[in-house]
Amino acid sequence: MGPWRSRHEGPIGCLRLKVGCVSLIVIDCTIATPPGTRRTPALFCNHTPTLSQLALSFCRHRRLSFVGSDKKRCDGGTGDKTARPQWPEFNNEEKKSAYSVQSLGIIMSTTTTTTTGLVQVSSTPDIRLFYSLDGPLDGSRPIIALSSSLAADTHLWDDFVTAFTPQYTILRYDARFHGQSPLSSTPDFDYAAGHTIEDLASDVVLLLDHLHITKLRAFIGLSIGAAVALVFGTQHPERVEHVLVVGTKAENKESANAGHQARITYGRENGPLALGRQSISRWFSADWITAHPDKVAKLEGIVGTQSIEGFEASIAALRRLDLWKYADEVKKRGHGERFVFVAGEWDTPVVPESRQLAKRAGSRMVVVPESGHIVNVQQPESFYEVVREVIEK
C-alpha cells in the first residue's frame, strides 16, 4: 500500500507505528473529527491495550487526541480537558462514514524504510561520514536533516525520528570520526589539528549531493551541530528553507581553551566512557540524572562510546569558532526569518550569546523552559512543539 494522505476520505486501513527501536506495528485505526465541532482530530484504535498504548505515544507526538478500543478519550498533548463527546463505534460503518478525515497536512505511510551508508567527503586525507536516512526520497515527504552535538551520534535523535517520520523523511549523519563515521585510513592523520566548522558544513553539502537532495525543509543542529547549521544555512540558502540553531555559543574565548584541553586529557587517561559521563554531568543537573536512569543509560551508551580522536578533532573546530560574521551575513541578506535560535533555559553559558546572535541576524530566539544544553532529550515535547511551529507554518 502506498502513502496514505490525511486529506483522503475514510479510515486508515493499516498504520505502522515505529516506536524507538521496536519493529513496525500494524494497527487498525481511523482519524476523525465530530462534525460541526472544532475539536482536535482523534485517532481511533480497535486493538489490544498494549498496542493502544503505542498509538497513544504516537498521538502525543503529533498533537492528535486518542480513543482506544475502550472508547476512552485521552488528551494527545492538546490541553483539551473538556467533556468527552460520544465517539462512533469503530466497527459501525454507518456512523463512521459521518466522520470525515480532516486535512491535517500530514502524510502517514504504511512503511518507513531506513537506509544507511558511507559517503566520502575527502579522499586525501581519507574522511568518510556515516548517514542514516529514515523515509523515502521520492518527493512524497519534506526532508529534515539533523546534526548532533559534540561526542554524540545519530542515536541522539532516535526519539525525534519516531515523532517526525510519519510526516517527514529524516536524514541523520555522524560527524567526522564520531559514531559509525570511521577514523581516517590516512597514515599519521593529525586529529589534533582537526577541522573547522566550515569543513563540517561542506560535509553536509557533499552528503546532500551524494543523496541527490536539492533542498531541505529544515536543518536542525545541536551544540556544535548548531554552528554547522548556521554556517550551512548562510552559505547555501538555496538548499534549505528553515534553520534551527539549537544551543551554540557565538565564539570561543581564550579562557575556554584550558577546559577544552583538560577534557581531551581526561578522555585519554580515563577512556571514552568516563569522558561521556563527565559530559552528561555538565549537560544535566544531578536531580535530572537521578530521576531519569533509562535516559541516562542510553546517553552513556552514546557519548561513552565515541572516539577520543573524534572528540579532539571537533574541539579544534570549537577553538576556531566565530559565528558573528555569519549572523551579520544573514541580516545583510534579509534572511533572518528563515533562522530560529533555540536554547535551554538552564544552559546559562549559551543563552546570552544565542540571544545576541539572533539579534544580529534579525532572527527569533526561543528559550525552552526547564532545560539545559541537550533540549531534545531533556524537554522533547517542548522542543518538538518549537520545531513544528517553525517548519509547518
UniProtKB/TrEMBL annotation:
Signal peptide: 1-32
Gene3D superfamilies associated with the record: alpha/beta hydrolase
InterPro entries according to UniProt: AB_hydrolase_1, AB_hydrolase_fold, AB_hydrolase_sf
Domain AB hydrolase-1, first and last residues per copy: 157-385
Pfam families, A to Z: Abhydrolase_6 (PF12697)
Superkingdom field: Eukaryota
Keyword annotations from UniProtKB, A to Z: Signal
Cited PANTHER family: MONOACYLGLYCEROL LIPASE (PTHR43798)
Name the UniProt record assigns to this protein: AB hydrolase-1 domain-containing protein
Organism: Scytalidium lignicola
